Amino acid sequence: MRVTVTVNGEQRRADDVWEGESLLFLLRERLGLPGSKNACEQGECGSCTVYLDDVPVCSCLVAAGQVQDREVRTVEGLAEGDRLDPVQEAFVEAGAVQCGFCTPGLVVAAHDLLDRVPRPSDPEIREALAGNLCRCTGYEKILDAVRLAAARR
Amino acid sequence: MTSVGTPVPRVDGLLKATGTARYTADIPFEDLTHAVLLQATIARGRIASIDASAAEAAPGVLLVLTHLNAPRLPRMRAFAKGGSAQQTVPALQDDRVRFAGETVAFVVAESQEQARYAAMLISVEYDEEPPAVGLHGDAYPPAKVNGQPPDYRRGDAERALADAAVTVERTYRTPVHHHNPIEPPVTIASWDDDGGLTVHEAAQGGVHMMRLGFAEALGIPRRKAGSIRVVSKFLGGGFGGKGFMWPRNILPAVAARLLGRPVKLELTRAQMYTSGGYRSETVQRLRLGADRDGRLGSIVHESTSTGSDMGEFPEPCAQITQMLYACPNVTGTHRLVRQNVGVPTFTRAPGEGPGSFALESALDELAGELSLDPLELRLRNYAETDPEHDRPWSSKGLRECYSEGAERFGWSARNPEPGSMRDGRWLVGYGMATAAYSSHTWPTFARVRIRADGTAVVRCATTDIGTGTYTVMAQVAADALGVRPGDVTFEAGDTRYPFAFPPVSSSGARSIGPAVRAAALAVRTRVARLAVKDRESPLFGADAATVRAIGGGRLARADDPERYDTFVDVLERAGLGHVEERKGYGVMPFLHSTASGIAPWPVGPLLRVATRPFAGRYSTYDFGAQFVEVRVDPDLGVVRVSRVVGVYDIGRVLNPRTARNQAVGGITWGIGMALMERTTTHPRLGKYTSPNLSGYLLPTNADVPDIDVHFLDRPDPLVNPLGVKGVGELPVVGVAAAIANAVHHATGKRVRSLPIGPAELLG
Amino acid sequence: MRTFAYLSADDVATAVQAISTEPGAKFLGGGTNLVDLMREGVEHPDTVIDITRLPLTGVEELPDGGVRIGALVRNSDLAGDRLIRGRYPMLSQALLTGASAQLRNMATVGGNVLQRTRCAYFYDGTAACNKREPGAGCDAIGGFNRNHAILGTSEDCIATHPSDMCVALAALDAVVEVESVRGKRRIPLVDFHLLPGGTPQVETALEADELITAVELPPSPLAATSRYRKVRDRASYAFALVSVAAALEVADGTVTGVRLALGGVAAKPWRAYEAERVLLGAPATEESFRLAAEAELAPAVGRSQNEFKIELAKRAVVATLRQLLTEGGAA
C-alpha cells in the first residue's frame, strides 16, 4: 500500500509498504530517519517514542497504515535548524546522555511532558517518563535535564 | 588549566540527543540483505527433520542455512584459553539441540519482514529429550575461575568454624540475570572483491579480539587477519552482553560470503536472551565463624552456578570473600551443575555482584547474632593488607568510604532493633554493605597525532559502550599535550586503530588512559625536540626533556614560561602536516616496539606475558561503602528504596560527571538486582519464560530514588601514572545485600533469595 | 508476521459491515495489543480493519448523571477527563496505573476491554496453551506462574485478565455497548469476560462480528469516594500482582454502600460480590474488612508459585478499604 504522512513538517510518501510494517520501520527503513530506535518492538522500553498528531506513542506498535494523512514528529524534528530544542540542550548539558540509545525516545517524552506540564514535580517527571527505560544512567541526570529544560522554557 | 578532574560534558551528547549518532543498525548500506535467526523451541534433543522449502520459495528469500547445508565451521577457542568465544560450539553444524534458543536456521531475504515471514514457514520436527534444568544435578569443579583454580584455601576454615564461638550458616540464591542493554546486538558483514571482510558490530567485545574471532571462525589464517576490518563506533550499552564472539556474530559473515552481498542481522529482544550469554543463577552456601567480639575466624563460601556442554563460565562469586576481610581461615569453592542452557558470561560486576549479596548478607546476619552494629563488624575485620595474596594494597580508602558514607547517610540514627523505625505506616530500614571490585588493566595502545592547526586526534581501537571514553580520553590527551579538550578528537571502534582490549572489567579508564597519556607525552616531546633544534624557536637550545606544556598548545622553557613556542608554529616552520606517536601501556617494554596495532594479536599469550609484571607487588581493588534506606509497606510487602549513599575509592576521578553517571547507573543495577530482575525458566521444559522487558523488569525512573554519590578522588600512583582505578562495576557491588539488610532491618524478615518482593515478604 | 489485508473504516456501519463479510478479520484500534500479538504470531487475522477514524471519541454526560464513553477514547484522555476524575476517581486512577504514558496515549477503551492475557505461555507460540490452541495443554500450571490467577481458574487455564481499567469498570457496574449488522446490544461488564472452564479460548461474550462502540457508567454517588490500588513488582509500568478498585460509604460507623473489584486474580476483572455482601451493614472496621476479604478469597486456589497472592489480595482489600475509611477517596 501507499502511505502518505507528514513527518517533521514535510509531506512524505512511501510506496509498496507492507501492511505489517510499523511506523518505526517506516521511519527508519523507508524515510531515512533512524533517530527513533528499535529496541524491544513491544512497547516496553519507549526508545521508539515519536509524536503522532502531537501525542507521544511507541512507534513500534503503530501499524504503518494507521498514520495515513496524519502528522509525525521525531527526535530529528525537534531542533529548529541548528538551534537545539531546550530539552535536547538540557540532556546534553546535564549529562543525561550515556550510551544514548534510549535518549531519542526520552527526549520526545520529556518534550511532551513539558508541553503539558511546564513545571513538573519530581514524582510527575518520574511517572511521566517511566515508559522510557534507561539501562545506563540510573535516571538521575535525566531528571536533572528535565528540571533544567523546565527552568529554561 | 587541566581538564582531567573537571566535569567536561560528553562530546557525543549532541549527536545522541538529536538522533544523529549512527549506531550499527542505523548505518545505510547499498545492496543490503537482512537475516533472522530461527531458534530451537526445545531445550534438548535432536532435529528429526527440518524442511525449509516453503521458506526458500517465499518472496524475497535469498538463502536459508540449516545444519543440512551450512558450511562447516570450526569449534572456537574459549576466551579463558586465549580465544574470543564463551560458547565454543558453532551454530548449524549438527542435528543436536543443546538449549532452547540455539540457532537451527539462518534466513536471509531482501527485507527483514520477508526474512521473518520466511522463518515462520520453516517446519522443524524434534526428537525431544528431557532437559537438565536448575542447579539440582551433580556438581563438578570448573577448570578455572577467572584464571584461578576453582578452590581456594587459606588456613583451615572447617576447623576454625568448629572452634568458633558464634557461627552463621546460610544459603543464598540469585536468579539468572540478563544484560538487557537497550540496543539489541547488530552485525553487518560485507565482503569486498579482494576477499576482505568488513563487519560493523555493536561490539563490546573489542574490535581486535573480534577480528581474531572472525579469522578463526572463517578459516582465515591469522597472518591474513588484517584483511578483516571490524567497526564499532556507537554502542547502545553492553554490560557484558555484547562481549565475545557468539554464533550470531559469525553467521552474517558466512552468509554474506555465500551471497556476495552484505548481510545484516539484528536480534530481537527475545533472541537477546539466548544469543549472547547471561549471568548464571547461583546457589551460595556461606558459613561464618567469629569470636564474641565479632572477629572473623573462618569463612567458607561455596558457590554453584550453571555449567554447559558448549563452554564454561563459572560465576566467580567466592573470589570477593577471599580478599575482603582480615580472616585467617578462608575457603572459597566454585562448582558447576550442567544444564541445557546456553553458556553464561560476564555480566556487570561478575562474581562480586551476586557474591557480595551472599557474603554481605551473611555478615549482617552475624552482626545480628552478635548484637553488633553491621558497620562496626566490618571495621573489626578490616583488612589492612590483602589477606589473599599477603601483600599491600596499591591503595585502599575503604575506611574513609565507611566513615564518609555513614556520616552522609546518618547511619548513627539507626535503631538496631528490626521493625523499630517507621514513617507513617511505612516500615523504614537501614542497611549497608561493603563494595569491592577487581578492575583490570589490559594491554592497550594509542596513537596521538598533533596537526598543523594545533588540534589533535587520538586513535585507539577500544569502543565506547556508553561510559564516556570519547570524552574522558580527549581530556587525558588534552592535558598531556597542553591543549583544550575541545581541540582533541578521540576516535575509537575500528581495527585500523591501535590495539585495545575489550572494555570489560572496569578496565577502560585505567588501561586506555595511561596509553593515551603516554602517546600524547611522546608527541609533545617530539615537537619539543623539533623546537629546541630550531634557531627560530624561543625554545632553541633548551633541553627538550624539560620543556613544559603551559596550555593553549604552548610549550615553554622550564626556567622561563614567558619563552614559549606553539604546536602550530613549530609544525609550520618544520613544514610538517602533523606529528604522531604511538605508545602502549600495560605491556612489557619490548612489546612496545614490536607490536603493530594493525597486526593480528595473540590475545591469550599476550595477556599472560603482559600482565605478569603488574601482578607482583601490590593488590589493586576499587573499594566502596553502600548505605541504603528502604520503605516497606507492612500490608503488602512492597519494598521501595528511598535513599542510597555510595562512597567510592576509585583512585583519581578523571571526569566527575561521567564517573557519577557510572556510579548512579551501577547502583540502579543493584536496585534492579535486589527488587525485580530475574529471568525465569520453565522447570520442566527448560525454556525461558518471558524473554522480554515486561517479564524481565528493569528499574524505571519511578523506582530510583535520589542517590548520593561521593568519590574520595584520591589518586593511586602505584596503579598507573594517572592514578585511576575503575568505576564501571564497583557501584553495583553490595547494593543488593545492603537492600536485603535494610529490608531485614525494616521488617525482621531475612530474604536470602533475590529478587525481594511481596511473595517473599508475605510468605 | 503473516500477510493480511488492511482496510480502513470511517463509520461504524462500514466497520461492522466489513467484519460481517470477513470472518477472520480483526478491528485495529490503538494497536498496543493486536500489533504486538500479530508480530509474535499469536494473532494472525486475514484482514485488519483500522477503526481509529470512527467517531467514537466522546465522553458525554448522560441525563441520569451517568457517563457514556466512546470506544475509541484514549486511555490517557479518559484518565484526565473532568467528569471521570470528579465522579469516578477510581477509574481515572486505574487508567493511570496502566502501562506507560505512551501506551495510554495509544490504547483505546474498547481495546483495553478486549486486552488479551499476558500469560507468557500464551505469548510463546512454542509453549502449550489451551487458550491459543484448544486441547494443547497448559504450560503455566507446572511452569512459572507467580503472576497467574487464583480465582475462577480451571485445570485448562490459569491466565489473568491484565486490564486495570476493567477492574474499576467492574466495580462501577459499567455496561458495554456493542454493535453488529444484526443491531446493538448491551452487556454488563461483569458478564463481558468469561472464566476459562473447559473453553479458555472463549474469552468474552462478544461475537466475532461485533464492535464495541461505547462503555456506559451508571450514576454512582458512592463512586465519588473511591480508590484504585495496584500492587506490582516495580513502582510503575508493570502488570498487577493484585489490584483493588473500591468505593465505600459509611454512616454512623456502619458500611452503607460498597463496591469492590479485584484485578490480577482471575481471567476476568473480579467483582467481589461476596465481600460486598459481608460488608454491607457491617461495622466499618478493620475486622470487617478482613472478614470480607476472607470470604471473597475463600475459593481461591494457589499454584506452585502464586500461593502468596491469596494473602496479598486479602491484605490489599483491607488496606484499600482502610485507606478509604481514614483518608477518603482520591483527589
TrEMBL record, chain A:
Looking at the record's lineage, which domain of life comes first?
A: Bacteria
Q: Which UniProt keywords apply?
A: 2Fe-2S, Iron, Iron-sulfur, Metal-binding, Oxidoreductase
Q: What is the annotated signal peptide range for this record?
A: none
Protein name per UniProt:
Carbon-monoxide dehydrogenase small subunit
State the taxonomy lineage.
Answer: Bacteria, Bacillati, Actinomycetota, Actinomycetes, Pseudonocardiales
Q: Which residues form the 2Fe-2S ferredoxin-type domain?
A: 1-78
Q: Which InterPro entries match?
A: 2Fe-2S-bd, 2Fe-2S-bd_dom_sf, 2Fe-2S_ferredoxin-like_sf, 2Fe-2S_ferredoxin-type, 2Fe2S_fd_BS, Beta-grasp_dom_sf, Diverse_Oxidoreductases
Report a single Gene Ontology molecular function: metal ion binding
Q: Does the keyword Metal-binding apply?
A: yes
Matching Gene3D superfamilies:
3.10.20.30, [2Fe-2S]-binding domain
Note the Pfam families from the entry. Answer: Fer2, Fer2_2
From TrEMBL, chain B:
Read off the Gene3D superfamilies from this record.
Aldehyde oxidase/xanthine dehydrogenase, a/b hammerhead (3.90.1170.50), Aldehyde oxidase/xanthine dehydrogenase, molybdopterin binding domain (3.30.365.10)
Q: Which Pfam families match?
A: Ald_Xan_dh_C, MoCoBD_1, MoCoBD_2
The family database entries (InterPro entries) matched by this protein are listed as: Ald_Oxase/Xan_DH_a/b, Ald_Oxase/Xan_DH_a/b_sf, Ald_Oxase/xanthine_DH-like, AldOxase/xan_DH_MoCoBD1, AldOxase/xan_DH_MoCoBD2, AldOxase/xan_DH_Mopterin-bd_sf
Residues covered by the Aldehyde oxidase/xanthine dehydrogenase a/b hammerhead domain: 18-130
UniProt KW Oxidoreductase keyword? yes
* Record key words, sorted: Molybdenum, Oxidoreductase
Q: Which GO terms describe its molecular function?
A: iron ion binding; oxidoreductase activity
Q: What is this protein called?
A: Xanthine dehydrogenase molybdenum binding subunit apoprotein
**Organism, scientific name:** Umezawaea tangerina
UniProtKB/TrEMBL annotation, chain C:
**Database matches in InterPro entries:** CO_DH_flav_C, CO_DH_flav_C_dom_sf, Diverse_Substr_Oxidored, FAD-bd_PCMH, FAD-bd_PCMH-like_sf, FAD-bd_PCMH_sub1, FAD-bd_PCMH_sub2, Mopterin_DH_FAD-bd
Source superkingdom = Bacteria
Query: Which molecular function GO terms apply here?
Result: FAD binding; oxidoreductase activity
Keyword tags: Oxidoreductase
Start and end of every FAD-binding PCMH-type domain?
1-222
Q: State the signal peptide span.
A: none
PANTHER family noted in UniProt: OXIDOREDUCTASE (PTHR42659:SF1), XANTHINE DEHYDROGENASE SUBUNIT C-RELATED (PTHR42659)
What is the protein name stated in its UniProt record? Xanthine dehydrogenase YagS FAD-binding subunit
Organism the protein comes from: Umezawaea tangerina
